[in-house]
Amino acid sequence: MKKIIKNGTIVTATDTFQGEILIEDGKITQIGANLSALGAEVIDAKGCLVFPGGIDPHTHLDMPFGGTVTKDDFESGTVAAAFGGTTTIIDFCLTNKGEPLKNAIQTWHNKSKDKAVIDYSFHLMISEINDRVLGELPQVIDEEGITSFKVFMAYKNVFQADDETLFKTLVTAKELGALVMVHAENGDVIDYLTKKALAEGKTDPIYHALTRPPELEGEATGRAARFTGLANSQLYVVHVSCADAAEKIAEARAKGYDVWGETCPQYLVLDQSYLEKPNFEGAKYVWSPPLREKWNQQALWNALKSGQLQTLGSDQCSFDFKGQKDLGLEDFTKIPNGGPIIEDRLTILFSEGVKKGRISLNQFVDITSTRIAKLFGLFPKKGTIAVGADADLVIFDPNIERVISAETHHMAVDYNAFEGMKVTGEPVSVLVRGEYVVRDKQFVGKPGSGHYLKRAKYSMNAPLTQNQTLSI
Ligand code: URP
Ligand code: ZN
Ligand code: ZN
Questions:
Q1: Kind of pairing, strands 68-69 and 20-24?
Q2: Which atom of ligand 1 sits closest to the CA of residue 238?
Q3: Ligand 1 pocket, 288 CB below 6 A?
Q4: Which of 6, 194, 264, 293 has the fewest C-beta atoms under 10 angstroms from its C-beta?
């Protein structure tokens, strides 16, 4: 089915212009004025922005964690993502020590293939580096197209890898053409501080934040960055929450290290005081790294504006308040870490960032889509509006005012972290490969219609290599 989007303002990471987009067989085939094609459906985007579908580089759907499983699976999670203007996600595939990597990847395919309503890919968690893993990684890259590896520097005795594993992963990734992602917090010191707090009877949610101070995120970020320089490798630091860590990334980049940083909406607009909400409500705001003192928000906005942080992930990792977060009623270390953000990622950045003059519209597109596509081997098929690219498009009303609420969101959880927040801007229609998933704010997609995406190898400047060249 052909479609022509007319009357909208097209926004890419570099340009903003009035134009029309012709979509044929799921791809953008023309951009111009007065376009026509026999039998094409005309979509009127008057008063709206048209930008490339958001790419969420950081989700945990249907993931066992903290003694339970994240509430949103690949169906509810991707439906909510679509309502929020996201057309591709990259989810974290967990691995267990001793388990063949292909089994772990198959588990993630089984979770997603009949459920996803938008396109998706996986990062692979590295829990150990030994001959077996080294033997399997080339296949992971070549056959599965998984070109990013995740190492946790925290969650001692659960996911945490040691420095040797991190360093070997960086060396291996350099050889194979993969990007290493780190959760950067010093897990050993956090373990000491949490045990000490519990021994002193400090069990409330606020102690989650107080036992994971920003110094420990800054230290781990700096350590990972130095290892990256030493290995002449490439690093992407997930969920940067504080000035200390953002500064370490800026310092590494100033030295010429290939280090990138992601922040998340929650760190831009929420702060540590939320963990002190009465009646255990603070548990809704337990993330690792934790929400920080409010002054850190300005540092994160500055880093996004100046390009020292380059991307926005949701770190979607949702748990119900009743029945999941309350596992930690008597002990903050038992509160499952994470929150429901996938749906509001773009709107928060648009409303708080673009509308408030903190970042430009083109930066908004770069931060939520284009840069992510480049870093994770999806560009230019994804992440831009160009002839030959997939027609993953968001028709976005930039003026509509609304209030975020769990009453109206599409995630499966019983609360929204931004409850009551007034925002401006909302996706009206969302297309994936030229097909509507959301049409006039109604879900019209189909579970299982999302495609699994094999990604290209990491390339610092994401050039148009042969296997990435657009074709129509
Ligand atoms: O609290 C968080 N961030 N939960 C998700 C898992 C992780 O560390 O990214
Ligand atoms: Zn993490
Ligand atoms: Zn995460």
A1: unpaired
A2: 9
A3: yes
A4: 293
Per-residue pLDDT of the chain (472 residues; tens, 9 = 90+): 899 999 999 999 999 999 999 999 999 999 999 999 999 999 999 999 999 999 999 999 999 999 999 999 999 999 999 999 999 999 999 999 999 999 999 999 999 999 999 999 999 999 999 999 999 999 999 999 999 999 999 999 999 999 999 999 999 999 999 999 999 999 999 999 999 999 999 999 999 999 999 999 999 999 999 999 999 999 999 999 999 999 999 999 999 999 999 999 999 999 999 999 999 999 999 999 999 999 999 999 999 999 999 999 999 999 999 999 999 999 999 999 999 999 999 999 999 999 999 999 999 999 999 999 999 999 999 999 999 999 999 999 999 999 999 999 999 999 999 999 999 999 999 999 999 999 999 999 999 999 999 999 998 754 443 344 455 5
Given a contact cutoff of 8 angstroms between Cβ atoms, the answer to whether 209 and 275 are in contact is: yes
Distance CA 66, CA 287 (A): 12
218 alpha carbon – ligand 2 mean position (Å): 14
Judging by DSSP bridges, how do beta strands 422-432 and 393-403 pair with one another?
antiparallel
Query: Which strand (E) or helix (H) includes residue 56?
Result: strand 54-59
CATH 3.20.20.140 given to domain 53-375: yes
Residue whose CA lies nearest to ligand 1 atom number 7: 288
CA distances from 228 to 172, 185, 215, 275, 426 (A): 11, 16, 20, 34, 39
Centre of ligand 2 from the C-alpha of residue 350, in Å? 24
Nearest to 417 by CA among 406, 432, 407, 426: 406
For the chain, give the number of residues. Answer: 472
Q: Does this model's pTM top 0.90?
A: yes
Give CA–CA dist 53/365, Å, rounded. Answer: 9
Alpha-carbon span 185 to 153, nearest angstrom? 6
Domain with CATH 3.20.20.140 in the chain: 53-375
In which residue ranges of the chain is CATH 2.30.40.10 found? Answer: 3-51+382-399+420-443
